[in-house]
Design a protein that fits this description.
Elements: E1 11-12, E2 16-20, H1 26-33, H2 57-72, E3 77-83, E4 88-98, E5 107-114, H3 121-138, E6 143-147, H4 153-161, E7 165-166, E8 171-172, E9 179-180, E10 183-187
Parallel strand pairs: 5-6
Antiparallel strand pairs: 1-2, 2-3, 3-4, 4-5, 6-10, 7-10, 8-9
Helix pairs in contact: 1-2, 3-4
Length: 189
């Protein structure tokens, strides 16, 4: 399989399209990252203190530019989630292969950021069903992990339906050695 950093794949069905983030997404994504109901669901573990709550359009534009640079540097891939019915971006999915000295070494970390009105089991399941089956092969890893905070019932139900299971393992931050919990994992089949 071609590296996602050489050619970023597009994933789609009749309702959604996942494609590489673009600067033109800033206006729509600002509605996601300024959504106070959505921010608590975001995974900001090991992100140098960024909570991804942006109240200025310039912050959103800066984040997209940083995400594009990370892609060029082979740090991570950030897909924009487009709702085909509305033709608007409603969130993002980030994936990268993690290298570390803990249980989550050689693991694809999946981050899902959604506008709060899409934080529903059916939408989450449908979105993740587009990308999860290809993730281990795409990132040459044996496991996928995603953070699901205790209050995120719809998200938990969706990832469990996909075969993820709660892990008691601790993810240790690479920058500050901070310990992070609440991860669900799916092993390659």
């Amino acid at each position: 399989m071609i590296s996602p950093y050489e050619k970023c794949p597009v994933f789609e069905n009749e309702n959604y399209c996942l494609r590489l983030i673009d600067a033109s997404d800033a206006q729509d994504l600002f509605l996601v990252y300024s959504d106070e109901k959505a921010v608590p669901y975001f995974n900001s573990d090991n992100c140098n203190g960024d909570t991804f709550h942006y109240t200025l359009q310039e912050h959103m534009q800066g984040a997209i530019a940083a995400w594009q640079q990370e892609y060029k540097n082979h740090g991570f891939v950030r897909w924009t989630i487009l709702d085909k019915k509305t033709q608007h971006a409603v969130g993002t999915i980030e994936l990268f292969r993690r290298r570390a000295d803990d249980y989550f070494n050689d693991c694809a970390i999946l981050r899902l950021d959604l506008r709060s009105d899409y934080e529903r089991e059916s939408a989450i399941y449908e979105l993740l069903s587009l990308i999860v089956p290809q993730t281990c092969e795409l990132f040459a890893c044996q496991m996928i992990a995603t953070k699901v905070k205790p209050f995120a019932a719809a998200r938990r139900a969706a990832v469990e339906k996909l075969g993820f299971a709660a892990s008691t393992e601790i993810l240790v931050g690479g920058h500050d050695q901070k310990r992070y919990t609440d991860y669900y994992v799916l092993h390659k089949r």
